[in-house]
Design brief:
Layout lengths: L19 H10 L5 E2 L11 H13 L9 H15 L8 E4 L2 H12 L5 E6 L3 H8 L4 E6 L1 E3 L2 E3 L2 H7 L4 E7 L11 H14 L2 E5 L26 E5 L13 E4 L3 H14 L6 H13 L1 H25 L4 E2 L7 E5 L7 H12 L1 E2 L1 E2 L10 E5 L4 H14 L4
Parallel strand pairs: 1-13, 3-4, 3-7, 7-8, 8-9
Antiparallel strand pairs: 2-10, 5-6, 9-10, 11-12, 12-15, 14-15
Bound molecules: pyridoxal-5'-phosphate (PLP).
């Protein structure tokens, strides 16, 4: 048993639980022997206060239609006050079942067909899909790598923006690169959006996973005119490993934007939250701060272990700095092989499944994304498998 409240070392068999990370991927590759480090959820049990709250719901034995309660709002308000130092009025909070749905709804509500929407690339693909599948034009703003971290290219932004550009989608911390944008960068982006009258949709789902000594500047901390362009999307699901619950929320300060978005949510028929989601939010956002601290420390240790091991034994993989998320973004260009060849090596020689960079767009090529939110013991196995097969690349 570790010193943590949850035994993060425990290897929990998630197979045969309809698990997207382990079962769907096993089915995709027709294999049961792969170790999966892809889909972005954690292999850890959720904190006990959440499990207890779920047990209470189960104990009642009735799973009827459920409405948002006061605790939904006060718990979110507490969390935002504690972690972002910002007091949010209750009416700014808008329930939505998923962030991926929220992105699509905001694009639909606030922009017109063929309007342009900017997103940094590489990008989490459902955010790109929200643009493309709603018949808007995706405008890519590739991140550049300077002085040891990925940066937003503000010069390029000024060159691609025009009067048809209506929204910017920012991911902070950034999936897949693990970058946490500084206050300066956030302010600069806010200024850009105000100048060009562009809505700013900020996805902060990974905000609670910060590497040691890193702080996160939420867009909610930026006061002034940006609040008239802003949608900040967040969720409890990554933080406490409950994405199967399906719940998220948006903070929308401007009344007109909020009404438009809320009307569309209503039109689509998203009315009642999942009965378990309220239990998760109340328990998670009020009683699980210590668990979060522990899981972040555990992920930091995993990061260090993987980074040190790769540097020592597989130096042609280059692990990018991770400031946030529980995902490592690893460059393999020194190997001089194609993505197809590397994927084949991972699946057939190392027997490990990771996300290949091209699933995050063209700008993801040359990288892999590795989910390290799993037992250290399992990661040790992965590293050993990779090391034993390294000479075969
Ligand atoms: C950046 C980002 N946004 C959103 C999501 C998904 O959120 P939801 O399950 O609320 O749609 C993920 C999941 O991996 C993510 O990485």
């Amino acid at each position: 048993m570790s010193t943590f409240l949850t035994d993060f070392d425990e290897i929990i068999d998630r197979r045969n639980t309809n698990c997207a990370k382990w079962d769907t991927m096993a089915k995709k590759y027709g294999r049961n022997d792969l170790i999966h480090l892809g889909v972005a959820d954690m292999d850890f049990r959720s904190p006990k206060p959440i499990i207890d709250a779920f047990s209470q719901v189960i104990e009642n034995g009735i799973f009827g239609y459920t409405d948002l309660n006061d605790a939904f709002y006060t718990s979110i308000q507490r969390w935002i006050k504690k972690y972002n130092g910002v007091t949010i009025p209750e009416e700014w909070i808008v329930f939505c079942s998923r962030i991926n749905i929220a992105a699509g709804i905001c694009i639909n509500s606030l922009t017109e067909t063929n309007d342009k929407v900017i997103i940094n690339t590489p990008a989490y693909s459902p955010l790109c899909d929200a643009i493309i599948k709603n018949n808007r034009v995706i405008i890519e703003s590739p991140l550049t790598f300077k002085e040891d971290h990925f940066c937003i290219d503000f010069e390029q932004l000024e060159s691609i923006v025009d009067e048809n550009t209506k929204m910017f989608i920012l991911c902070n911390p950034h999936n897949p690169t693990g970058r946490v944008w500084t206050r300066d960068e956030i302010e600069q982006l806010a200024t850009f959006c105000i100048k060009h009258k562009i809505y700013l949709f900020v996805d902060e789902i990974h905000a609670n996973f910060l590497a040691k000594n890193l702080t996160h500047t939420s867009i909610l901390q930026i006061e002034g005119d940006i609040q008239d362009y802003l949608i900040c999307a967040n969720s409890i699901t990554k933080t406490f490993n409950v994405p199967g619950i399906i719940v998220s929320y948006m903070i929308i300060p401007n009344n007109e934007i909020r009404t438009k978005v809320a009307n569309d949510i209503d039109r689509i028929g998203i009315h009642n939250p999942n009965i378990f989601s309220l239990a998760a939010i109340e328990a998670g956002y009020n009683y699980c701060d210590d668990w979060l601290k522990d899981v972040c420390a555990y992920i930091d240790n995993n990061d260090k272990m993987v980074r040190d091991y790769i540097l020592k034994y597989m130096p042609k993989f280059e692990v990018m700095p991770r400031e946030g998320t529980y995902l490592l973004w690893i460059n393999y260009e020194k190997l001089n092989i194609s993505e197809k060849e590397l994927e084949k090596w991972f699946l057939e020689e190392a027997n490990v499944q990771v996300n290949m960079g091209s699933s995050f767009g063209e700008d993801g090529k040359g990288f892999i994304r590795v989910n390290i939110a799993t037992s250290r013991l399992l990661l040790e196995k992965v590293l050993k498998r990779m090391k034993d097969a390294y000479s075969l690349i």
